[in-house]
Write a structure and sequence with these properties.
Layout (H helix, E strand, L loop, with lengths): L1 E7 L6 H19 L3 E8 L20 E7 L8 H7 L1 H10 L4 E14 L12 E7 L7 H18 L5 E10 L9 E7 L2 H7 L4 H12 L8 E9 L2
Helix pairs in contact: 1-3, 4-6
Length: 234
């Protein structure tokens, strides 16, 4: 099962200090202590690109780190919440409580629309991720929202010419109570910062087409977009 967590430092804490703590102390503890951890990626919100053609406007971004975690279920009968609470949940909660950090966790199913990139373990990936947490547009339900996003996938792969990996993470269940009701998390990887800044779109005209297509299934007032460094830790 795959879980995505959106994590925010406590008010008043320095962002860079929190992120370094997360990478140096929190993340290694997760790798060491979480049973059945298959794969673990940490995305740190520390990139500020200089965009030639601006992407969609974003709501305020409260997140400092996004993690992607795959945990192997011991049997098919165990629910996602049971698996998370029996393995990762207590370790994460105990560690983050030392920094009074907030964690919003979601069970997701991923659709890999493009995969032309490999990543070395432990070290920072050379490029940058564009991460967007999305909510379906008014009038869209989970069926029609997903249909719109799946239809969008091939268009995004064609227009975002600098992108080498694109994953659509569909939220299947909110694991942590009180978390924002996102419907999905998009992760687009660009192998160099210049690929994001200069090759996000193939033409200005297609940038407008992308924006119109996204608007057809995403609530643009609630979309949260930011840019991260990626560390594949397991």
């Amino acid at each position: 099962m795959k879980f995505i967590s959106l994590i925010s430092r406590a008010p008043g804490q320095d962002r860079a200090d929190f992120q370094q703590w997360f990478l140096r102390e929190h993340a290694p503890a997760i790798v060491k202590q979480v049973a059945r951890l298959g794969h673990y990626i940490v995305n740190v919100n520390d990139v500020s690109p200089n965009m030639g053609v601006a992407p969609l406007e974003s709501a305020p971004v409260p997140y400092d780190v996004v993690t992607e975690m795959w945990i192997d279920a011991p049997n098919a009968a165990q629910s996602a919440a049971e698996l998370y609470n029996a393995t990762a949940g207590p370790v994460i909660a105990q560690s983050l409580s030392s920094r009074s950090a907030a964690c919003h966790c979601y069970l997701v199913s991923e659709v890999v629309e493009k995969d032309q990139q490999s990543f070395a373990l432990v070290q920072r990936a050379p490029g940058v991720n564009l991460v967007s947490a999305i909510t379906w547009a008014t009038g869209k339900n989970d069926v029609t929202g997903r249909q719109g996003w799946r239809k969008h996938g091939p268009l995004a792969c064609r227009v975002h010419i600098g992108m080498t990996r694109y994953v659509q993470n569909y939220v299947e269940q909110v694991i942590t109570p009180g978390s924002p009701a996102y419907n999905g998390v998009a992760v687009l990887y660009f192998p160099a910062l210049q690929d994001l800044e200069q090759r996000l779109y193939d033409t200005p005209q297609n940038a407008e087409i992308i924006a119109a297509d996204v608007k057809s299934f995403v609530n643009l007032e609630k979309i949260v977009t930011f840019y991260t460094s990626q560390y594949s830790l397991k």
